Each structure stands twice: as structure tokens, then as C-alpha cells.
């Protein structure tokens, strides 16, 4: 077709890590790889696509990595042999990594594992448990993460639209029960069909039939077979419609021994037992006699009697009905307790298979193999039932078990395994009873004063004047990078533009041509896109874990036809590349410290405006206070100051004290950077009214890398 060109659909390339060289792979067709790369490959096989390709990246592994590696047996895998073949955005991430044009996705899950207990369990905790078991010599007690998942499977299912799911399951159960239960119509039809077939075979073997007798027997048998099939394959509601249509056909009305009146009575009794929600039309029960043939007149009479007794022609008002169980009248609505919904943990997140099952399946296969099925079932019966349920799914057998069967791990030795007592913590992100590490501290006045009295001279940073002068005009900024273009509500436009201007000017004061700038926790990319326009010779990375936010940012960038922006959908943890400037506008709580740590690790400059001081909390890799200067401040008093720092709302009587507390927390962050060789500046955004969280922390290495 002349004049028409078709754009070739681009490939999504999945990059997986391997501890096996290409030469070794050619000889054995076996790969040693990390568990998370193996899980990703199995999911790729489970969801095959012609637009997805896999590339293997060989890396050097430590002895510890090799000891916890798994083996993939597969032919014809494609290797990227040199660092020049690996795209630079991929090299900046932790494997597995997916790249599609300017979009990079890394990690088993993109949800924030610092705030989602469930995501952290699937993506981090269970993988760590497997690695620990594979490097252990023996086992003395059940790992705590296994007990957490066992407790999770015992708890009521808490998922989105759980009440709607409960109604759907109840409806499916009722429909299945009506089709499979031993109702009279189905039984009689099956018995009738069998008897007619036996009689026909007997007649055929005893004496030849006349043509009329043969035709009558054939019509009778055919009619009953059609009726039995219809009864078996339709629900109660469909049976009524099928019978009405069938009763009008001569083939469907067979030999009848009862009178029309008797048959109507029988049909009415049967219909009362099997009425549907829309009709009470009865279903005729064929008689079992084979010695008489009904005449055409009698058939017409009975057919007319049946139609005259059918109430379907009479108008009736439909009544609203609520789902009720067959055993008791239990209404399924929002007042029903979740525990009574009969929605079970057939799978990890409820009654349906999800991505979480695919991620957890290989780790648990390894765990069960190392501990032993019998012992595992006795210790964790709910988890074992979940695991065996997955092994029966044909697709999982083909795409997971076919590869996992090649595993071999030496079973762990043990005499007895203890069951430690662990905290009953739900893994559901929105479970109101779950452990919440960010639970607010409700401070008392005396607690605040005591905490502030521990702040000695020289701990707090001096607040500098904000002398950043505007170097651009908003009227000259194109629509995609301008808050005034309608990307924000009118009530926020002016304040947002003031916030963006402060951070953009801070970056412009320290940037140099060719820098790589990472906008951490970028959201919809307002700050990063503005910088991409102002700095066309710099590379801007927009990093966030929300695909919807990045998608909106990408649409605006493409409309502006800018080619210096890349989009990373991942947690901050999985970004390990080097860069020149890290920025973060209102990264909540601990996220600001994660950004700061990334910058300090690669000796990059930073420009951050923190928020949500009250949500700070210690984690397995984040310790507060951050700096040596603040090390004498107890953690309880530190968190008390952080909570007080959120009391900076407009016209709040304690806003002045709240502002000082926010500066104390940011001083701790600044002192940490100073101890790492940075020159740090703490100032306020201007005007301060643009946001209650108006601190601006700027850090520049004294000795550039």
C-alpha cells in the first residue's frame, strides 16, 4: 500500500543477571543466577509475548552469591557479552531490569517496600530467608518470615471490593449447586434415558419392528434424550424456558400415563422446588412407561393444558433480592463481618491467583525442598496447602515446576525445629490491625520541652538567607513544564510554581553542562520536566514507583519533544547508578533520608525540601539520629521532635516551635553530609507561605569526585 508506513512495535527487553559465563553456558546449557532473576524468567514463560525478549547479563559473583544461586536449564538464551552492549540506564539499576524505549522498570515489584509490609515481604523478606537457608548448615527454628506468612493465610481476606467478591462467590456457589445437586428432574431424566435405551436394545434384539413402531420409539427416545440433556445443562431459570420451547414440539411430548390434570399438578410441585428469580414455570417430568403410545389428539390436549397453566404470560412485578446462603439467611453487605464472608485464602491474596503467588512459589519450593515436605506440612499446614494448590495448576507446572524440578539443594540437618513466638503482624497493607512502624507519637508538652532541652549549642545549622534570584520567566515556559498550563488545580498553581522555582534556581546555581540529574520521588515530574527544559544539555531521570504518575509525566515530555528525559519506575533502593545532582521536593519522611544516602554514596550534590517529619522511624538500615553531632540525642526524644516538626500549619499557635523542630531534624541531616565532606546550606523557600514544609537543604561536595 503506497504512501502508508507502519511503525514496528518495539520490544520490551528483560535483562537478567547470571553468574555463569557465556562459554560455560554453551557447554552445559545451565545458568547459575540469583533467585529474583529466576522468578522473573519463570513469569516471562508464564506470560509469553512476542514483544518481550530476554537478555542475559553475565556478572562476577561472590562465594556467598554462588552459594544462594539457583540453576536455570534452558537452551538458546541470548547473552550481552560486553559492557557496551548493556544500555546505560539498565546498568544503573539492580537486576532484573526491563527497558522499553525511555522507560526502565527494576525490581520484582515497584511498590514502595518501605511503606507496604506485603510488598516488602514478597520482594525482600522471603528472598532473604531463602538465601539464609541456602547458606546455613542446619536449622534450629522456623524462620520468622515463614511464620508471618502462615499467620497471614489464617487471617480473613482483606482485599479491595471484598464484599463484591463475596457476593460473586456466593452466586457462583448457588449456580454450581443447582446444576450439580441431585434434583428430581435430573435424576428422573437420567433414569428415563437409561431405561428407554435398554428397552430399545431389547426390542431390537427380540423381534423386528414395523416402520411406524420404530419411528414412534425413535421419536420417543430422541425427545427424552433432548429433554434430559436440556435439564442437565441449564440452570433452574434456563430449564423453564427450555421446557416451554420443547413442549411445543411433538418430539418432546412422549408417552404419558397420567392425565393432563395429574401432570399439571406434578409439574407445579416440581416447579415450586426449582423456581428461579424471574419465573415459576414448571418443568414436565416424562413418564417411564413404554407400553403405550400417545395419540396426536392427546398430545395436542396436553400441550394446550401445559400452555394454559404457564404463568409466564401474566405480568408480575419483579422483587429485589439479596444474596443469601443456602444454609442460613445471611445478607452479604457492608455490615457483615469480614470473618463471615466465606472468602478464603486459596491463594496468597485471597480466592484468586495473583502475581504475588508467582513471586512466592519458587522461594517456597526451595524452602520445602531444604526442610522436607513432611516436616514442613506438620509445622506450617496452611502454607503447605497453599503450595500444593499451586502445584496442581497446569500453567504453573509448565512454566515453573518444569524448571524448578532441576533444582537440587542439600537438605538441612536437624533433630528438632522450634517454633518461635513472633508478633502477630498482618501482611495486608490496609489491615487496620497490622503493625504500623510509622504510627504517630502523641506527644505531651513536657515531653517536647524535655527533648528540646537536649539540643545543645552547635548542633543546629544556621539558617541562611535565600538570595536565589529568578533567572527565567514562567510566561516563557511551555505548557508541559508550566504549572499554569492547567496540570494542577487553580488553588495550588501559584504555591506550586513558587516551590518549583526555589528548587530549580538552587539546581541552576550548582549545575554544570552534561550533568545527570535524578528527580527522586518525582510524582508527575513537575520539577524534573522544568529542569529538562531549562537544561537541554543535561540528562534528567524521573524516578518514582507509581506508574500512573510517570505515565502522565511521559506524555507531557513527549508532547514537548524533549529527548533528554528517562523514566525509572522503581524504589529508590534499586537505583544504584552514578549521577551528579539528586533532587527531591517533599519526599515524605524516610524517603528524604534515602535520597540523601544515595547522593552521599556517589558524592553527588543534593537539593531537597523535606516533609512529613512525624513519620520518621528506624528501619533495619536507617538509624536515627543520622549524624555524630546528634548521637547523644535519644531516639525517643528525636522522634518526639520530628512529630512536633509537623505542627507548622498556617496560623497554628505552635507553628514557630514546629518550624524550629523541622530545622533540628534537617540540621541532623546536614551535619551527616558535613561529616562526609560536604558544604551544606539550610534556608527557607520564599515566600515561606508557599508551603508549611518550607526548608531547603543544599549540599555540595568540597572535593568533587
From TrEMBL:
Compositional bias (Basic residues): 318-328
InterPro entries named among the record's database cross-references: Glutathione-S-Trfase_C_sf (IPR036282), Methyltranfer_dom (IPR025714), SAM-dependent_MTases_sf (IPR029063)
Pfam hit, one: Methyltransf_32
Superkingdom assignment: Eukaryota
Family: Belongs to the GSTCD family.
Residue ranges constituting the Methyltransferase domain according to the UniProt record: 495-617
PANTHER family assigned: GLUTATHIONE S-TRANSFERASE C-TERMINAL DOMAIN-CONTAINING PROTEIN (PTHR13369:SF0), PTHR13369
Ranges of compositional bias, category Polar residues: 219-294, 302-317
UniProt GO cellular component terms: cytoplasm
Protein's name in the database: Methyltransferase domain-containing protein
The encoding gene: HaOG204679
Amino acid at each position: 500500500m503506497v504512501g502508508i508506513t507502519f511503525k514496528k512495535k518495539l520490544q520490551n527487553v528483560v535483562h537478567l543477571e547470571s553468574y555463569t559465563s557465556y562459554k560455560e553456558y554453551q557447554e552445559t546449557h545451565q545458568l547459575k543466577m540469583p533467585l529474583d532473576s529466576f522468578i522473573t524468567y519463570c513469569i516471562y514463560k508464564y506470560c509469553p509475548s512476542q514483544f518481550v525478549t530476554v537478555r542475559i547479563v553475565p556478572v562476577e559473583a561472590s562465594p556467598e552469591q554462588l552459594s544462594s544461586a539457583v540453576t536455570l536449564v534452558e537452551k538458546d538464551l541470548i547473552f550481552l557479552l560486553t559492557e557496551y552492549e548493556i544500555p546505560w540506564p539498565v546498568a544503573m539499576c539492580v537486576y532484573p531490569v526491563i527497558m522499553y524505549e525511555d522507560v526502565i522498570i527494576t525490581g520484582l515489584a515497584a511498590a514502595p517496600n518501605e511503606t507496604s509490609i506485603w510488598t516488602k515481604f514478597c520482594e525482600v523478606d522471603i528472598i532473604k530467608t531463602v538465601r539464609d537457608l541456602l547458606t546455613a548448615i542446619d536449622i534450629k527454628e522456623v524462620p520468622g518470615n515463614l511464620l508471618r506468612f502462615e499467620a497471614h493465610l489464617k487471617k480473613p481476606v482483606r482485599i479491595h471490593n471484598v464484599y463484591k467478591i463475596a457476593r460473586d462467590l456466593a452466586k457462583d456457589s448457588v449456580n454450581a449447586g443447582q446444576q450439580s445437586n441431585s434434583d428430581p428432574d435430573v435424576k428422573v431424566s437420567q433414569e428415563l434415558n437409561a431405561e428407554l435405551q435398554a428397552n430399545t436394545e431389547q426390542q431390537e434384539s427380540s423381534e423386528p419392528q414395523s416402520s411406524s413402531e420404530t419411528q414412534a420409539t425413535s421419536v420417543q427416545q430422541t425427545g427424552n434424550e433432548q429433554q434430559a440433556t436440556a435439564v442437565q445443562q441449564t440452570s433452574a431459570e434456563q430449564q423453564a424456558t427450555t421446557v416451554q420451547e420443547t413442549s411445543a414440539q411433538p418430539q418432546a411430548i412422549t408417552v404419558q400415563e397420567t392425565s393432563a390434570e395429574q401432570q399439571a399438578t406434578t409439574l407445579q410441585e416440581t416447579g415450586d422446588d426449582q423456581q428461579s428469580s424471574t419465573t415459576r414455570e414448571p418443568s414436565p417430568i416424562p413418564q417411564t412407561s413404554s407400553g403405550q403410545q400417545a395419540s396426536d389428539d392427546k398430545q395436542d390436549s396436553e400441550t394446550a393444558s401445559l400452555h394454559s397453566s404457564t404463568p409466564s404470560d401474566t405480568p408480575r412485578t419483579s422483587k429485589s433480592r439479596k444474596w443469601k446462603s443456602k444454609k442460613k439467611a445471611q445478607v452479604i453487605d457492608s455490615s457483615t463481618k469480614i470473618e463471615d464472608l466465606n472468602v478464603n485464602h486459596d491463594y496468597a491474596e485471597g480466592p484468586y491467583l495473583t502475581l504475588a503467588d508467582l513471586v512466592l512459589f519458587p522461594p517456597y519450593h526451595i524452602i520445602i525442598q531444604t526442610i522436607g515436605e513432611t516436616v514442613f506440612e506438620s509445622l506450617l499446614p496452611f502454607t503447605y496447602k497453599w503450595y500444593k494448590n499451586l502445584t496442581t495448576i497446569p500453567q504453573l507446572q509448565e512454566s515453573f515446576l518444569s524448571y524448578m524440578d532441576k533444582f537440587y539443594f542439600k537438605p538441612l540437618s536437624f533433630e528438632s525445629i522450634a517454633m518461635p513466638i513472633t508478633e502477630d503482624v498482618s501482611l495486608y497493607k490496609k489491615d487496620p490491625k497490622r503493625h504500623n512502624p510509622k504510627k504517630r507519637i502523641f506527644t505531651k508538652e513536657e515531653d517536647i520541652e524535655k527533648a528540646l532541652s537536649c539540643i545543645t549549642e552547635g548542633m543546629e545549622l544556621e539558617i541562611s538567607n535565600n538570595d536565589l534570584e529568578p533567572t527565567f520567566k514562567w510566561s516563557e515556559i511551555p505548557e508541559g513544564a508550566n504549572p499554569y498550563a492547567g496540570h494542577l488545580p487553580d488553588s495550588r498553581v501559584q504555591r506550586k510554581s513558587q516551590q518549583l522555582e526555589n528548587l530549580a534556581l538552587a539546581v541552576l546555581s550548582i549545575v554544570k553542562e552534561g550533568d545527570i540529574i535524578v528527580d527522586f520521588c518525582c510524582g508527575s515530574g513537575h520539577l524534573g520536566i522544568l529542569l529538562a527544559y531549562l537544561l537541554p544539555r543535561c540528562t534528567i531521570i524521573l524516578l518514582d514507583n507509581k506508574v500512573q504518575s510517570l505515565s502522565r509525566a511521559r506524555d507531557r515530555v513527549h508532547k514537548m519533544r524533549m529527548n533528554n528525559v528517562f523514566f525509572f519506575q522503581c524504589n529508590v533502593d534499586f537505583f544504584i547508578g552514578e549521577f551528579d545532582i539528586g533532587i527531591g521536593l517533599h519526599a515524605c519522611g524516610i524517603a528524604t533520608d534515602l535520597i540523601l544516602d544515595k547522593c552521599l554514596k556517589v558524592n553527588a550534590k543534593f537539593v531537597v525540601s523535606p516533609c512529613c517529619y512525624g513519620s520518621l522511624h528506624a528501619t533495619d538500615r536507617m538509624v536515627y539520629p543520622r549524624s555524630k553531632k546528634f548521637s547523644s540525642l535519644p531516639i525517643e526524644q528525636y522522634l518526639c521532635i520530628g512529630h512536633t516538626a509537623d505542627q507548622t500549619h498556617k496560623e497554628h499557635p505552635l507553628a514557630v516551635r514546629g518550624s524550629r523542630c523541622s530545622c533540628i531534624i534537617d540540621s541532623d541531616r546536614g551535619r551527616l553530609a558535613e561529616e562526609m565532606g560536604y558544604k551544606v546550606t539550610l534556608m527557607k523557600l520564599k515566600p515561606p507561605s508557599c508551603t508549611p514544609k518550607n526548608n531547603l537543604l543544599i549540599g555540595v561536595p568540597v572535593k568533587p569526585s
